[in-house]
Write a structure and sequence with these properties.
Distance between the termini: 135 Å
Order of helices and strands: HHEHHEEH
Number of strands: 3
Radius of gyration: 40 Å
Strand content: 5-15%
Number of helices: 5
Shape: rod-shaped
Structural class: mainly alpha
C-alpha cells in the first residue's frame, strides 16, 4: 500500500500528472490505474508505446489496456518489497519517456508548421508565376488583335479607296 501510494505521488509530480492522470480518483490500496488518453491525444503516444519504452529502461511494464473501461489504461502494482530507489527510478523513467514524447510532438508540430509555411510560400510563388503568365498571354493576345485590326483596316481602306480613286481619276481625265 505504501509503495503504490508513494509511486502514485511521484508520478503526479512530474509529467505523469499531466499525461497519465489517475483513472479513479481515490486512495489506492496496492494498485492504481492511470489513463494514457491525454498522452495519446496530446502527444500521439499510446499506452503500448510507454510500456515498450519502459522495457528499454529495464523495467517490467505495468498491465496495459486493463481495466477495459479505462481508455489507454496502465495498471501499476508495485510490490511492497521494492526499494524506494527502485520506485524513484521507475517514476523518473516515466517522466523521461513523457519528456521524449513532448519533444517528439513539438518537433512534429514545428515540422508541420514549416511544411505549411513552405507550402503557402510555394503556392504564392506559383500563383505569382501564373498571374505573370496570364498577363503576358493577355498582352500578346491584345497585340495580336491590334495587329489584325490594323491589317484588316488597311485591307478595307485599300479595297474601298481603290475603286473610288479609279472612278475619280477616270472622271477627272474625261
Amino acid at each position: 500500500v505504501l509503495n503504490a501510494n508513494y509511486l502514485l505521488a511521484r508520478l503526479r509530480e512530474g509529467r505523469g500528472g499531466k499525461y497519465l492522470p489517475l483513472a479513479f480518483d481515490r486512495t489506492c490500496m496496492h494498485e492504481f490505474v492511470l489513463s494514457g488518453a491525454p498522452a495519446k491525444r496530446e502527444l500521439g503516444v499510446k499506452t503500448l508505446d510507454v510500456a515498450k519504452r519502459l522495457l528499454d529502461f529495464g523495467f517490467h511494464p505495468p498491465t496495459i489496456y486493463f481495466p477495459l473501461l479505462v481508455h489507454e489504461a496502465l495498471m501499476v502494482e508495485p510490490t511492497e518489497t521494492e526499494a524506494k530507489e527502485g520506485l524513484d527510478d521507475l517514476a523518473d523513467a516515466f517522466d523521461q519517456i513523457l519528456a521524449e514524447a513532448e519533444t517528439t510532438a513539438t518537433e512534429r508540430l514545428q515540422a508541420a508548421e514549416r511544411s505549411e509555411h513552405e507550402t503557402r510560400a510555394a503556392a504564392a510563388q506559383l500563383e505569382a508565376e501564373a498571374r505573370q503568365r496570364a498577363e503576358s498571354l493577355v498582352a500578346a493576345a491584345r497585340a495580336t488583335a491590334a495587329q489584325q485590326d490594323s491589317e484588316t483596316r488597311d485591307m478595307v481602306e485599300t479595297r474601298t479607296a481603290g475603286p473610288h480613286a479609279r472612278s475619280e481619276g477616270m472622271t477627272a481625265g474625261r
